[in-house]
């Protein structure tokens, strides 16, 4: 076998810069062997001299709360995997959980407070960075004025940070009943509906009794909720002879 000659040449359709042939070059393992040193040794330390460590914690990418291991190199998160000793997920991790590293290093993550640019219209999304001191000063001034006049004018909404107990306490101490969080638009209404119709709810407020069930009907459960433990449980349920029916607008099988 003769290799094609890799020389600087004209670039044409379908050609690679520096190649004159029309076919990709082939390696002649007799005349052009692999380099003597291994390019990557999977058993070697990731970086000689680096300080590597592993921290056990809980995943916050959904309400499932799987156990995870966070691997760090010189204090920087390198990757996340499941904790095999955790009783909930037994080492299983989903794509959403493993991508939790982006909560720390996403280019879109806000690391400084933003205020509306002077003269910009409300809702235009035109913001500029400010200091934490200026942000806290602005909040204190506005909240003090509202609380002194009519606390109920203050409405507080928090995202899915699972800190509703703390934020609700803050709102009540402030004097306003107008506070809500992610659960009011998601799981709370689902739980109320199931409690009033069939006497029980699922997921955050209980779970299916798959140990005694023979038929499990799952209607409209989000794909990113409680995924790992439920997948483990359903797999065991089906292996034990149970029948599983899923009603979902998303094609899953």
- Report, as a whole number of angstroms, the end-to-end distance: 47 Å
CATH fold field value of one domain: N-terminal domain of TfIIb
Which CATH class of one domain?
Answer: Mainly Beta
Q: Provide the low-confidence segments as ranges.
A: 1-22
Strand order of the largest sheet: 1-2-3
* CATH architectural grouping of one domain: Single Sheet
Class by alpha and beta content: alpha/beta
Summed up, the helix count is 6
CATH superfamily of one domain: ADC-like domains
- Taken as a percent bin, the fraction of beta residues is 15-25%
Q: Rg from C-alpha positions?
A: 28 Å
**Average pLDDT taken over every residue:** 79
Shape: flat
Biggest sheet details: 3 strands, antiparallel
Q: How would you spell out the order of helices and strands?
A: EEEHHEEHEHEHEHE
Helix percent band: 10-25%
Give a short synopsis of this structure:
This protein is 25% helix and 17% strand. It has helices at residues 95-98, 102-105, 132-149, 164-174, 187-198, 227-239, and strands spanning 52-58, 67-73, 76-82, 114-116, 127-129, 156-158, 179-181, 215-219, 243-247.
């Amino acid at each position: 076998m003769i290799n094609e000659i890799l020389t600087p040449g004209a670039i044409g359709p379908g050609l690679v810069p520096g190649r004159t042939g029309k076919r990709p070059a082939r390696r002649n393992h007799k005349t052009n062997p692999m380099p003597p040193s291994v390019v990557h040794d999977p058993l070697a330390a990731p970086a000689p001299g680096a300080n590597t460590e592993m921290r056990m914690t809980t995943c916050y990418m959904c309400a499932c709360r799987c156990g995870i291991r966070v691997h760090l190199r010189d204090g920087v998160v390198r990757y996340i995997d499941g904790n095999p000793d955790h009783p909930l997920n037994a080492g299983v991790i989903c794509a959403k959980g493993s991508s939790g590293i982006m909560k720390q290093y996403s280019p879109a993550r806000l690391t400084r407070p933003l205020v509306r640019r002077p003269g910009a219209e409300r809702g235009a999304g035109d913001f500029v960075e400010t200091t934490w001191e200026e942000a806290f000063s602005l909040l204190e001034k506005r909240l003090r004025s509202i609380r002194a006049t009519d606390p109920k004018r203050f409405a507080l909404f928090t995202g899915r940070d699972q800190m509703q107990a703390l934020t609700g306490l803050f709102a009540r101490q402030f004097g306003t009943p107008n506070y809500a969080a992610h659960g009011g638009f998601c799981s709370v209404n689902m739980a109320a509906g199931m409690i009033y119709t069939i006497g029980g709810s699922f997921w955050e407020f209980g779970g299916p009794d798959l140990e005694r069930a023979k038929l499990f009907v799952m209607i409209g459960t989000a794909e990113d909720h409680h995924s790992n433990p439920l997948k483990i449980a359903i797999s065991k349920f089906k292996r034990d002879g149970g029948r599983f029916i899923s009603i979902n607008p998303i094609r899953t099988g």
